[in-house]
Amino acid sequence: MGFLSDLREDLSFFGGFKLTIQHLTRPRVTFQYPEEKKPKQPRQHGRHVLNRYEDGMEKCIGCELCAGVCPANCIYVRGLDNPPDHPVSPGERYGFVYEINYLRCINCMLCVEACPTEAITDSKMFEFSFTNRADAIYTKTELVVDDEGRPQKMPWEDWREGDDLMTSGWMRATAPAGNAAYEGVTQWSGELGYGVRQGEGGQSENRDDTVTGSKLLRDLLPGHLLKEDIDPVHLGVQGRVTRAKKQGEFNKVRLEQARDRLVAKRAQWKIDKENRKAAK
User: Fold this and answer.
1) How confident is the model over 80-133, as pLDDT tens digits?
2) Among residues 57, 95, 137, 273, which one has the fewest Cβ atoms lying within 10 Å of its Cβ?
3) How many of the other CB atoms lie within 10 Å of CB of 276?
4) Contact indicator for 60, 98 with CB cutoff of 8 Å
5) Which region, left, alpha or beta, applies to residue 134 given φ > 0 means left and ψ of -120 to 50 means alpha?
6) CA–CA distance, 56 with 49 (Å, rounded to integer)
7) Is the pLDDT of residue 203 over 70?
């Protein structure tokens, strides 16, 4: 072997930097979390909710199928006969006790599939943490939607706009028995505050992305596309300038927020100081 061949073989490890070097001139895909978040698709799986019919009655009939199918045993349900004078649900029984232990839940959503009345579905909110183990056990009070059909929002949950919309859109895209002719066709009851939700069309032509809010990955993740799909403003030197301006605007906002917090702390400090003087 010649000298050049030996040199090429010795320096072959530089080939591993090829992909890294290529991405140096492409737009960044990093989001300033939690201030910025990626848009969520309608089929996003998140925290559960217990739905109600449009007349306000609860959809849960206390059948306990969700608890029976749960592989993590995180759901506890106890049904009770409906009061004749003030029925809670249209059936003979209703969910008197309903609890989900999120320390056990694995978000498999088998409970949603098993529910015969579509009482339990899931929102798109999945960012929540607990400082108390008792807070991780959601009871019926926290799970049942309010009088406007919106999920109850706990203090430790990070809800964003749209997280309560299109609950279980992925379920409504499923065709019964795999029959494609029924894919996306409305076969479910209306919900309090929303009426009959639009069905997700899945991969068929029976879909309305404007209504459901579906977005193409090409529009959401431009940083992962091929070079020819990237806007020229994000390439080369121009791209570096663009990213520098965007970072500068972000830093300016953060600085203003820090100043506002400092001003508020100083004002509160003065008030506390005057109150201490008045107390003396």
Assistant:
1) 999 988 899 988 899 999 999 999 999 888 998 889 888 999 888 888 888 888
2) 273
3) 9
4) yes
5) alpha
6) 15
7) no
Which residue has 């978000």 as its token pair? 107
How far, in Å, CA of 51 to CA of 199, rounded?
A: 17
Sort residue 116 into left (φ over 0), alpha (ψ -120 to 50) or beta. alpha
Query: What gap in Å lies between CA 280 and CA 268, rounded to an integer?
Result: 19
C-alpha separations of 59 from 146, 168, 190 in Å: 13, 15, 10
Strand partners, 191: 195
**Inter-residue contact 64 to 120 (CB < 8 Å):** no
Asked, as a colleague might, if the bond just before 34 is cis with ω within 30 of 0, I would say yes
Q: Are 152 and 145 in contact (CB under 8 A)?
A: yes
Asked if 173 contacts 43 with a C-beta cutoff of 8 angstroms, the reply is yes
Gap between the Cα atoms of 58 and 189, Å rounded: 12
Q: What is the rounded (10 degree) CA torsion for 214, 41, 149, 171?
A: 90
The string over 205-224, giving b where at least 16 C-beta atoms fall within 10 Å of a residue's C-beta and e elsewhere, is ebbeeeebbbeeeeeeeeee
Tokens describing residue 161: 């706009």
